[in-house]
């Protein structure tokens, strides 16, 4: 069995957590509350918002989502829908959980929020309402933005919330492949069908973030959600996740009712969203459709930057009595990118986000 990564042996960007999904008990934690870049783990919240809109009857699985020029020009990974063309909500869902399509994420953001920036405000408000107090979103896909930060613990909370709040829709995360046009896209999560009990959730990668993975495991009468962030390679990240599952699933409780994330927190008013002091754009849009600059940004070392708009966020959420601890500024060092990648890793070495 592989050795569990410890603070002394880990990449300095590493963070991890294992949570008992029945009791909420933390079974393992390593820098779980330290700021990290989510990369495509961001799409978990995009999907949460999509599932919520479905449950509220605002959209249907066969509703059409039109791709604007803004969405169509997003860099890979993408499914390549042209500007002015549309696909169904269900096709968007499949493209996000398998291909991790950036263009589809932006199209859904514009469809639900009216604009990408407005949807990011909605995502942030929802995150804090769910108890993810150290998370801030600036886009729906996870492409590089120094203001878009989260923690391993917050991502575990989101994984549990997806399972608890949308049990019917959650099944999409176990999709092994998705055919769009003449192309079949395989799920980037290599643990599906390999590790017993794994039923999702999401991978992510940029140079700034390292290799990320949120995993849900349900085996007999035990259940956990585990998070690994900042892996040096996709293979080492997967190995670490396998080891965490093997070590801590047997320690999970066989009893407990779940319902760890309050359902009442899922409602955020339009006034709360409007009051968030968030910028209309982040640092990326001036070069957002210059592919070479976007790819260079993905490989660039991140600039340390605190989460902005905190005072307005606290004021806007005060009515919901959400406790917001004061985060310490953090410098997230650049990741070490391997010179070569194996064929098994090829789908998670995309230079933007997967």
Structure description:
The protein is α+β, with helices and mostly antiparallel strands and 354 residues long. The protein is 30% helix and 15% strand. It has ten helices and nine strands. It has helices at residues 42-55, 69-72, 89-99, 102-113, 116-129, 152-165, 234-248, 270-275, 291-299, 310-317; strands at residues 15-20, 26-30, 64-66, 86-88, 177-180, 183-186, 198-206, 210-219, 222-231. The strands form three sheets. It has a five-stranded antiparallel sheet with strand order 2-1-9-8-7, sandwiched between helices. A two-stranded antiparallel ribbon has the order 3-4. Strand 8 and strand 9 form a beta hairpin. Helix 1 (42-55) crosses helix 4 (102-113), helix 3 packs across helix 4 and helix 4 packs across helix 5. The radius of gyration is 19 Å and the shape is globular. The two termini are 27 Å apart. 50% of the residues are buried.
Secondary-structure map with pairings?
Layout lengths: L14 E6 L5 E5 L11 H14 L8 E3 L2 H4 L13 E3 H11 L2 H12 L2 H14 L22 H14 L11 E4 L2 E4 L11 E9 L3 E10 L2 E10 L2 H15 L21 H6 L15 H9 L10 H8 L37
Antiparallel strand pairs: 1-2, 1-9, 3-4, 5-6, 7-8, 8-9
Helix pairs in contact: 1-4, 3-4, 4-5
Briefly characterize the structure.
The protein is α+β, with helices and mostly antiparallel strands and 354 residues long.
Q: Biggest sheet: strands, sense, closure?
A: 5 strands, antiparallel
Strand content: 15-25%
Give the integer mean of the pLDDT values.
79
Taken in chain order, the helices and strands follow as: EEHEHEHHHHEEEEEHHHH
Helix amount: 25-40%
Shape: globular
Cα radius of gyration in angstroms: 19 Å
* Uncertain segments: 263-351
Q: Class by helix and strand content?
A: alpha+beta
| Strand order across the largest sheet | 2-1-9-8-7
Cα separation of the termini: 27 Å
Total beta strands:
9
| Number of continuous helical runs | 10
Quaternary organization: single chain
